Amino acid sequence: MKKEYHNEIIFQSRKKRVRTPLQSRAIEKKERIIRSAYELFSKNGYNATSIRMIAKKADVSIGVIYSYFRDKRDIFIEVSKLYTGEMYNSFLEIIERDLPKTNTVEDAVYMIILKLREVIVEHFTIHMETIMLSWIDERIRNHHVNNENRNARAIVTMFFKRFGDRLKIRDQKATIFVVHHAVEDIIQYMLFYDIEISEELVFRELAGMIAGYLEGR
């Protein structure tokens, strides 16, 4: 065990550029590492998951991992990319399918709140780990912010297609920021803390407030 730990320290201390896999076998191996890390981070969290655990689950050596990634943070960023990509692609497909069925801005906002809640619950550990790590790690923070901005713009674009004639927005960037964080922060708060208020009631109130804001009421 001590020898393995010593070898891991040696790998971590090496200052070399990681390689980009080109052959299909190497690409598959890197993807397997990311998928294995995704499962472990989802189950154990970031701090309780080690490089050795990832290597074992992916059935590769620690040296192979360090040939593709500089450190565990690099792996987590790739996992976060995988998570946010799959999460928001699925979410946007649902919104694109169901948004035309809503008759009012408030109903549409409420539907989006519920769908986003479902997606966050499905990936709760990775979602919260990404947020917490973004507070202390600049690279993870930049990646997280860029992803959030891109996905929020995509949702707002769909909203404009559906309700553009009803919306009264003074500044689109400011509106995207306010609405996105109002929705996501309240969902996270309701999921993370034990609140003695009906979740449905909170989400209905939130949808009504946001609809009034978007329609200039």
Please give a structural write-up.
The chain has 217 residues and is mostly helical. It contains 10 helices and no strands. It has helices at 2-13, 24-44, 51-58, 62-68, 72-98, 105-122, 124-136, 138-163, 172-192, 199-214. Helix 2 crosses helix 7 (124-136).
**What's the CATH class of the largest domain, please?**
Mainly Alpha
Which architecture name of the largest domain does CATH use? Orthogonal Bundle
Termini Cα gap: 66 Å
In N-to-C order, the SSE pattern is HHHHHHHHHH
Number of domains: 2
Mean pLDDT: 84
Biggest beta sheet attributes: none
The number of distinct helices, counting runs of at least 4 residues, comes to: 10
Write down the Rg: 21 Å
Q: Return residue spans where pLDDT drops below 50 for at least 5 consecutive residues.
A: 1-15
CATH topology of the largest domain: Tetracycline Repressor, domain 2
- The level of helicity is over 70%
Number of strands: 0
Quick one: overall form?
A: elongated
User: Structural class, from helix and strand content?
Assistant: mainly alpha
Strand content: under 5%
